[in-house]
Amino acid sequence: MIGVLQGFALILGIIGAGYLTAVFGVVKGEQRRVLNNVAFYVATPALLFSVLHTSDPSVLVSPVILVTSASALLVAAVFVLASRLWFRRDLASTTLGATCAGYVNSNNLGLPVAVYILGDAAYVAPLLLVQLVIFAPGILAILETTRAPGRSADAPAPRGGAARGGLVALGRAASNPVILASVAGFLVALVQLPIPEIVMAPIDMLGNAAIPMVLLSFGISLRGQRALAPGSGRAAVFTASGIKVLLMPAIAWTIGTVAGLNAHEVFVATTIAALPTAQNVYNYAATYRRAETMVRDTVFLTTFASLPVIAAIAWLLGE
């Protein structure tokens, strides 16, 4: 459990540094978007290629990953239904809310949880692969449809942009650096193409900067706007957070049990499903300037709420 606490402390420490950066005026207002843009267009693609180019594509069909992936899709559908019934949101906000409900922090917190609770870091690598190769491209493709032709990612889309810009959005999605890096890394792993160290060294260095930049930007965004403030879409935040930390692990446990997975596999799938929302989702929201407050508050809330849930799962199902 100490390792998990260290993982939480690492994330909160960098977020806190970002907040102090804003408090002391080092970064002001919209300047934080520079961090988001560099992270999204440069550092994150480098990180994804670095992670994926040595991955094992066969792990995509492991029982645990099938259970967690199915759970993610189901809880995303639950959020979409809730959005339709209780708090109608636009396409981008609904997509990001559904993503918050099912897209887990498989890196910063997933790794310490895998090492110190599950006993093997290899458990989160397949989920990271699924999220990067399958989920992220789909999410970004939908967000691209909310942009009108000829407008940048940080420009608000006018009404009707989704209907008029379908084909243009498809082209943008195909040229999105995050998607391109994910596909390239996966293909390199698939054909086992060796990459020279002289090429990978700068890619690895850029990739190492991705997560700190996203967390710093997240911390900066907390300055001047109270989390879960009235009128900030709290219904969507509480719904996405509850689905993420409570419903998703419950669904994973149910599917794993019904599917006949052994006790340890059910424990692994349930624990992974209880991980909080990934900070990457905030990076997507900030880059496309859609539902930023909702995503920020959901990431913030699930990061704290997931710790007691993971501890309870370890106590109830751990071996």
Automatic annotation (TrEMBL):
Pfam families: Mem_trans. Coiled coil: none annotated. It comes from the Bacteria. The chain crosses the membrane at residues 6-27, 34-53, 59-82, 94-117, 123-143, 174-193, 205-223, 235-255, 267-286, 298-317. Keywords: Cell membrane, Membrane, Transmembrane, Transmembrane helix, Transport. It is a multi-pass membrane protein. It is found in: Membrane. This is AEC family transporter. The lineage of its organism: Bacteria, Bacillati, Actinomycetota, Actinomycetes, Micrococcales.
